[in-house]
C-alpha cells in the first residue's frame, strides 16, 4: 500500500534532498582569464638598450614592419620572418599581476623552413625577465607552442611586456594569447 505525504511535507523533503548536507547556495566561481596583452598594441623596439633580447641580435638582422600584423578578428599577432627575421615588440601589461597568478602563453608557428637546418626562437619577458621561451628546430611541421608561468612577485598594470621572435627563412609565427588567471 502506497502512502502519500502531504504536499507541504513532500516539498520540504525534496528541498532537503536537493540541497544535500553542507552544500553552499552558490558554488564559488572559477577565476576568469583576462588578456594581459592586446594584439594591436605591440610596438617594435628599435633601441637595443631597451631590448631584453638584444644580445641575440645578429649584425645582419632586418625588420620591415610590414611583416608584423595584428589580426582584428582573431585578436592574434603575427610575425612573418621573411620580412622581419629578428624582432622584439613591447607593450605595457593591461592588468596587474599578483604572486601566484598563472600566465598562460599560447602561440603557433606555421610550417618552418630555411635554406639549411636552423632554429627558430620565440620568448616573452615581463618586467625585464624572460619568463617563457621556446626553441624549434627548422625544418618543422606547423605546431602549437604553449606554456604557463607562475608569477613570483607583484607587478602593476603597465609592467613592460616584450615578445621576441627570430629565425632564418621565410616563416610565420603567431602569438594567440597571453592571459593571466588570477589566484584571487
Strand order of the largest sheet: 1-4-9-6-7
- Element order: H for helix, E for strand: HEEEEEEEEEE
How many strands?
A: 10
List the total number of helices. Answer: 1
Radius of gyration: 24 Å
The residue fraction in helices comes out at under 10%
- CATH architecture tag: Sandwich
Percent of residues in β-strands: 35-45%
Q: Average pLDDT across residues?
A: 87
N- to C-terminal separation?
A: 55 Å
CATH topology: Jelly Rolls
Gross geometry: globular
Low-confidence stretches: 9-18
Q: How many separate structural domains? A: 1
* Main beta sheet strand tally, sense and closure: 5 strands, antiparallel
* Structural class by helix and strand composition: mainly beta
- What oligomerization state is this entry in? single chain
Summarize the structure in short.
The chain has 184 residues and is mainly β.
What would you say this structure looks like, in words?
This protein is mainly β. The chain has one helix at 7-19; strands at 43-44, 68-71, 76-80, 86-92, 102-109, 118-126, 129-138, 143-150, 160-166, 172-181. The chain has one domain (39-181): Jelly Rolls (Sandwich). The protein contains one helix and ten strands. A hairpin with a 4-residue loop joins strand 2 and strand 3. Mean pLDDT is 87; it is low at 9-18.
Record the SSE blueprint.
Layout (H helix, E strand, L loop, with lengths): L6 H13 L23 E2 L23 E4 L4 E5 L5 E7 L9 E8 L8 E9 L2 E10 L4 E8 L9 E7 L5 E10 L3
Antiparallel strand pairs: 1-4, 2-3, 3-10, 4-9, 5-8, 5-10, 6-7, 6-9
